[in-house]
Amino acid sequence: MPERAQVVKHGDVTQRVGVEVIRARGVDVDKLIKILIANAAAEFASTYYYYTILRMHLAGYEDYKEICEDARLEDRAHWELIVPRIYELGGELPNDLKAFHDQAGCVAAKLPDPPTVVNILTVLLESERCAIRSWSAVCDMTFGKDPRTYDMAARILNEEVEHEAWFIELLAHERDGKTIPSGHFRRGEPGHAPYSKNAQFYNP
Ligand SMILES: [Fe+2]
Ligand SMILES: [Fe+2]
Fold first, then answer.
1. How far apart are CA 57 and CA 163, in angstroms?
2. Rounded to whole angstroms, how far apart are CA atoms 166 and 187?
3. Separation of CA 117 from chain center
4. Which ligand is the nearest neighbour of the Cα of 80?
5. What is the DSSP letter of 129?
């Protein structure tokens, strides 16, 4: 077996073996960091916008509020989960919230006009769909090459896929009078985040 090329020198704290090994496997680390920052910005923005949509404009729909709140808190968990990975890879968050917001990988989930329940559910559904596409791209970039980022992205993706199913169910019911089950019952507690917090699944 040929000896593996070692880039990081003994005692060098300016380089990372954790980066060297994934780069050697073909990961474009700079591109990955950029995408992770964009995805983190989208999660951060979504927890803000979901807050406005949920708390202020779903009055009378307590069940929808609860489901939106789960999605909001799980997006916040996604933000918390992925940020340390950005720094481990040698990246950093922009030191300016506006700059950070402006590089989000998904459009802001702003309150629609008029803020009807159907319009709100549509914004939420499309926001989840953007998240699925964004995290799938990270899974594709890292599969078989960067197991740590892949594991985090796959955990997040699991929850985004569930979120899409929840909002399909609610929107189909509310807008079309149709039943399209998501398989959802309820989280154990608000923002349970079974995948991204490694919590127990609802499995009685
Ligand atoms: Fe998310
Ligand atoms: Fe989500």
1. 19
2. 12
3. 23
4. 1
5. H
End-to-end CA distance of the chain: 50
Tens digits of residue pLDDT in 77-100? 999 999 999 999 999 999 999 999
Angle between helices 62-88 and 147-176 (to 10 degrees): 160
CA of 196 to the centre of ligand 1 (A): 10
**CA-angle at 162, arms to 158 and 163, nearest 5°:** 115
What percent of the chain has a predicted confidence (pLDDT) above 90? 86
Architecture of domain 26-176: Up-down Bundle (1.20)
Which residues have a beta carbon within 5 Å of ligand 2, which is an ion?
Answer: 75, 128, 131, 160, 163
